[in-house]
Specification:
single chain, mainly alpha, about 0% strand, rod-shaped, Mediator of RNA polymerase II transcription subunit 22
Amino acid sequence: MDSKQRNAAALHRRINDLVGEFSNQYRAMLAIAREDEDADFSQSAQKELAIKEGAVAIITAAQKMTMLIRDLQELWLFGGLDTLADAKDEEVERKKVAEVARMVEGLVGKIPGVGREGEDGV
């Protein structure tokens, strides 16, 4: 997936486009499928062809939806989904990481026989 499409606005736009495509194709098929009182064989054949084309278009839209779902799963799994990123969240994470690093350094300093460089002649 293109990195420009990894934000909430692009994903919403993609979903809205797919939903619009589904509904437009469905409406078009319903309009075609209306019964005519004086239908002949050529009109019936034309309607049948148009309905088959509409069905193929709906199947294509469903396949696009499946690809979108797969892309979202990959983004979620590999951490590339950029919808919840916030600068404040990153700063909080940095503070937590720094605190954990200080605690680990403190614990390492308390282990007997393990000193900092320069303290034990190393």
